[in-house]
Amino acid sequence: MELLNYQTLKQSGYQGYILESAPEKVLQFGEGNFLRAFVNYWFDVANEKAGWNGKCVLVQPIAPGLAKLINEQEGLYTLYLRGRENGEKVDRKRVISSVSRCLNPYEQADFDAMMAVAVSDDLEYVVSNTTEAGIVYDPACQLNHTPAASFPGKLTQVLYRRWQAGKPGLVILSCELIDNNGRELLKCVNQYVDQWGLEDGFRKYVNEDCTFCSTLVDRIVPGRVKDPAEVEKMERENGYHDELIDVGEVFGVWNIEGPAWLEDKLPFRRAGVNCPVVPDVTPYKKRKVRILNGAHTGFVLGAYLAGFDIVRDCMQDGTVRGFMNKMLYEEVIPTLPLDKKDLEDFAGAVQDRFNNPFVDHELMSISLNSTSKWRARNMPSFLEYIEKAGKLPPCLTMSFAAYIAFFSSGIQALNGSGLVCRRPKGNEYVCSDDRWVLEFYYGHRNDSAEDLVHAVMANQRMWGRDLTQVDGFEEAAVSGLKLIREQGAKAAYAACL
Questions:
Q1: Residue 202 backbone class (left: φ over 0; alpha: ψ -120 to 50; beta: rest)
Q2: Judgement on whether residues 141 and 202 belong to the same structural domain of the protein
Q3: 424 lies in which domain range?
Q4: Which of 10, 15, 204, 489 has the fewest CB atoms found within 10 Å of its own CB?
Q5: pLDDT of residue 424
Q6: Is the residue at 345 inside a domain?
Q7: Are 324 and 187 contained in the same domain?
Q8: Distance between CA atoms of 459 and 226, rounded to whole angstroms?
Q9: DSSP alpha helices (H): ranges in 244-281?
Q10: What is the distance between the terminal CA atoms of the chain, rounded to a whole angstrom?
């Protein structure tokens, strides 16, 4: 079967939208599955729906990468968006044509090509997703390196060349999963301006003419299809061979923090896609952490003890789903600062996302580091609910009891793999968390429910405070833990409804 490219695509009879040639308006650091299922998808839709007429030049952030494959396929790849939307199963296919080429700047010719893009009159945006470790200042980087090893170093080289050529400033959209990603990136660039002794005019250009935007990305991207039989079926249906097939969930939102004029400059509002420009992404991050991530941490530990193994099956059980929804709609949403309907719509989408028929999301994979997760994702909602309502939130309180139950259920051993426990249906499982957390639970393995709950709540290293001081919490958690141990976690969840 022929490799995907424009000629092969025409021969395959593909009827979807394709844009073969357009100005290169985006320089994108990162060529992996996520950006191709997210940023390049949004720009592709903008080409179709808003007449944006632009292409993205991709850059490998590190030496090994996908440049060769992407260029062999002339930037084309097949994206499948799969999941549930408004309760209905969705499986959409789209060939993405918003990518022109991919550069490997660790080869001199491609480094020169990157610098040529830097001074292009067509260039308007820089996009990046170089992982959480990508936005780091590395003092070993020098201006004359080809290229600088760090992503902020490369970006400084690009912007300096552009400033020297007298070209307008750029909009930089950072997608790395760290707080204030745009501001942190700008801070690194300013450090290189200092270290490399660059001109004051360039410093002004970076800080005033360029617009560094923090953004919040939200789309689960499993990436490559692993089942060879499924790949073969896809390619037989498509009529071409695609080395870059990508898979993401249907849901997606890109919150971009920036000035009001950016909403008109970006093509996304005109295209009608879910990429709003907002004055501050902080409330949207809080929404994601407390609703999406908080839902996971809030129900999965008890659900695992109740005999469930994957998230989708939990959503098809009325008790577990009802517990999660009550926790979100009655206990979490009232503590958040955004519009109530916006929050309820987001929570409704969460249920669809968790019920994705194409993703087997294992509860044990979500259980990793649950102590710090409950503290970051659930404890703020718990405490703010008490402050607002003057009483304990029943579902969040039970989720804390389930957390303790998960780390203390039939403890068998503590070994190099983690804390070995046994769940009620008989199989052993391994709790993975910070070693000191596992040692704590192993040390308290013979405690009564009362003593264990007190020790957990009083451990300020875990929670940053003494939770025994929260009125009524200790007694409620003891009651919840006993109910889980005596009647099972599902019965405990049902007691909250």
A1: alpha
A2: yes
A3: 283-494
A4: 15
A5: 94
A6: yes
A7: no
A8: 43
A9: 260-265, 268-271
A10: 55
CB 140 within 8 A of CB 195: no
**Closest of 58, 140, 60, 139 to residue 99, by C-alpha:** 58
Q: Domain check: are 311 and 266 in the same one? A: no
- Residues 59, 206: one domain? yes
Between the alpha carbon of residue 221 and those of residues 34, 36, 69, 241, 248, the distances in Å are 6, 10, 20, 21, 4
Partners of 93 in the β-ladder: 80
Phi and psi angles of residue 262, each rounded to the nearest 5 degrees, phi first: -65, -30
Residue 70, pLDDT score:
98
- The residues facing 3 across adjacent strands are 241
CATH number at residue 356: 1.10.1040.10
Between β-strands 253-257 and 211-218, what pairing exists: parallel, antiparallel or unpaired? antiparallel
Note the pLDDT of residue 292.
95
- Both 42 and 142 in a single domain? yes
SS3 415: strand
- Same domain? For 292 and 270 the reply is no
pLDDT score for 32:
93
* 3-state SS class at 98: coil
Return all residues near 429 (Cβ < 8 A) that are at least 6 apart.
Answer: 304, 364, 420, 421, 422, 423
Report the interhelical angle of 394-406 vs 379-389 (nearest 10°): 150
Domain identity same for 208 and 120: yes
Residue 178's domain is classified under what CATH number? 3.40.50.720
Distances (CA, A) of 204 to 126, 194, 195, 211: 18, 13, 16, 12
Q: What is the per-residue pLDDT for 227? A: 86
Residue 391 has a pLDDT of: 98
Q: Give Cβ neighbours of residue 373 (< 8 Å, ≥ 6 apart).
A: 293, 297
Write down the pLDDT at residue 224.
Answer: 79
On whether residue 1 sits in a domain, the answer given is: no
Domain boundary (279, 305, 323) is at 279
Residue written as token pair 């949403």: 333
C-alpha distances in Å from residue 32, one per residue of 61, 65, 131, 309: 10, 8, 10, 29
